[in-house]
Amino acid sequence: xxxxxxxxxxxxxxxxxxxxxxxxxxxxxxxxxxxxxxxxxxxxxxxxxxxxxxxxxxxxxxxxxxxxxxxxxxxxxxxxxxxxxxxxxxxxxxxxxxxxxxxxxxxxxxxxxxxxxxxxxxxxxxxxxxxxxxxxxxxxxxxxxxxxxxxxxxxxxxxxxxxxxxxxxxxxxxxxxxxxxxxxxxxxxxxxxxxxxxxxxxxxxxxxxxxxxxxxxxxxxxxxxxxxxxxxxxxxxxxxxxxxxxxxxxxxxxxxxxxxxxxxxxxxxxxxxxxxxxxxxxxxxxxxxxxxxxxxxxxxxxxxxxxxxxxxxxxxxxxxxxxxxxxx
Length: 328
What we know:
The strands form 4 sheets. Strands 2, 3, 4, 5, 6, 7, 14 and 15 form an 8-stranded mixed β-sheet that branches. This protein has helices at 54-65, 139-152, 168-177, 184-208, 237-244, 269-277, 315-319, and strands spanning 15-19, 26-32, 42-50, 73-74, 83-91, 106-114, 123-133, 154-155, 220-223, 229-231, 248-254, 283-286, 288-289, 292-298, 302-310, 323-327. It is globular and about 60 Å long. It is α+β, with helices and mostly antiparallel strands. Helix 3 packs across helix 4. A hairpin with a 5-residue loop joins strand 9 and strand 10. Among the domains are: 34-121, TruD, catalytic domain (Pseudouridine synthase, 2-Layer Sandwich), CATH 3.30.2350; 154-289, TruD, insertion domain (Pseudouridine synthase).
């Protein structure tokens, strides 16, 4: 299934660009949301990896430390075709010497101790350095677009990687919703793809209506930087000002048990029924993504972007507001 070309908020792409021409054209550095205790039974390793995926590396750490794979923790999956820096926790029951770790494409940058295993979603943000290669437009036009993004943010779409190569995870969602039994991992991919697709469709409508960054009566609002949400019966001046200042954001649905059928795209009603039957809890996600610490530099044939995004945001959803990107 081919994915829709969801609406952009800030105009058509300014140029055609390639991304990940080399691994170091795409760098990600993870920032945790807590301080280390300095003691406890878990070693925390800040690892730089190139050409390696997170799950594979976690298994190498488990083998080296002589512990079950399920006891190795990490906060999120990071791209394989990139240079990424992220934290892993490993039980130190067998006192492994991490200075002797030898995994191709992996470096130990830091080591700490903590009393708890690292859980999924425990990071606060990711910092990116991305190089877009192509023939750039006039610098004035480029600067205007980037200043707009820095000020207003961008639509908080789920990135294409959420839907699998060629939309393969959408096909999984269809099969799962029609009753096909899937392995646990593929079932998780199906559920995630279904919820993400519905959210993106809702956001696409709000972008076209020019309300993706404005509160509308009946919205559920999200308090910036938190998971706190609250219902909006009427949009008063105070709420409108807080939304403009990015203190609060409008949200869209992550469908599940209790979600309204009216939000589901035509032809995908079976997804909501399956999500409800599976007791997947309905939730909300901000329609707007703020782009923190955005900086850039440009030459005739490349644009270097540096910025930070909150947990759960996709860098590719920011980049698509600048360029039509092909992934090398």
